[in-house]
Design goal:
Elements lengths: L2 H10 L6 H17 L6 H25 L14 H4 L4 H19 L4 H20 L6 H8 L3 H10 L4 H32 L4 H5 L3 H22 L4 H21 L4 H9 L1 H16 L1
Length: 284
């Protein structure tokens, strides 16, 4: 295979841009540490972390397949391999199937309950790219897709999904809607022209305050989880740093400069890391 085509596949799977995998990884790690009471099983951690990267790559492939006729009209996405013709739709479907096979091999190392959750995760991840055609709420669907590692962490450890797992799902769902709305704000003008829907369009001139409120609500739910799990001051210190990050994001997006809005989106990697660090220190 020519080197140029190899790099095209790397770009198709966003292996050159790992931010999406990090944003998917943090809530999975939160769940793993809570499910394992601060000492998650190493095998489960390894499988789910690998699964995060594989399924994120698969999600990017199916997203680009769904958007292949639109990406060329959006400045940020016009260089994607399917939009430029470097790869064909058939290439994308083949890559998607291979990634799913790898994910299946990984999840088969876990229990049956985790397999059930994995099939649900696949359905949501495959549905997400197409929701942008008929609803202004695709960010909520993405929030569910980005939260599927949470119930899997609990089923892998215990074979069931306790109440705290659903609180974690809610916290992450709120956070994903917040940061992916910022991401969608970058493309809003192009999306309006080609008919793609998003919460950035739905929220309109109230977008910044709604983004902040969703992020704040997420942290409040996480604080409640900390109370339920009897976490100590280190966890709440992590939440305080995350709250400072939310305020910093508001400062970055205030002028709606595309580059600064994208940087604000990227900073959510630090937000997830602050929360996880506080959680680990609390268990220690």
């Amino acid at each position: 295979m020519p080197t140029t085509k190899i790099f095209a596949y790397i770009r198709l799977m966003r292996m050159d841009r790992p931010i999406g995998a990090f944003l998917l990884l943090w809530p999975t790690l939160w769940a793993l540490w809570i499910a394992g009471n601060g000492q998650p099983q190493a095998k489960i951690v390894l499988i789910l972390c690998l699964g995060v990267y594989v399924m994120r790559a698969a999600g990017c492939v199916i997203n680009d397949y769904a958007d292949r006729n639109f990406d060329g009209d959006v400045d940020r996405t016009r260089h994607r391999p399917l939009a430029t013709g470097e790869l064909s739709a058939r290439n994308a479907i083949t890559a998607f199937i291979l990634l799913l096979l790898i994910a299946l091999i990984l999840v088969l190392q876990l229990n049956r309950e985790s397999l059930y959750v994995a099939f649900l995760a696949l359905a949501v991840a495959s549905l997400y790219p197409f929701t942008k055609r008929f609803t202004y709420l695709p960010q909520f669907v993405l929030g569910i897709a980005f939260s599927m590692g949470i119930p899997m962490a609990f089923t892998a450890h215990h074979g069931s999904i306790p109440g705290v797992a659903w609180w974690l799902v809610l916290a992450n769902l709120l956070l994903v809607v917040a940061y992916d709305t910022i991401y969608a704000m970058v493309d809003r003008e192009d999306d309006l022209k080609i008919g793609i829907k998003s919460t950035a369009i739905l929220f309109g001139r109230f977008d910044k305050i709604i983004v902040f409120l969703f992020g704040l609500a997420s942290l409040l739910v996480l604080a409640w989880i900390g109370h339920l799990q009897s976490m100590n001051v280190y966890f709440y210190g992590g939440l305080a740093l995350a709250a400072a990050n939310l305020l910093y994001q508001q400062w970055m997006i205030k002028d709606e400069d595309p580059k600064r809005m994208f940087d604000a989106f990227l900073s959510n990697n630090w937000l997830g890391a602050f929360i996880f660090s506080g959680m680990v220190l609390s268990y220690l």
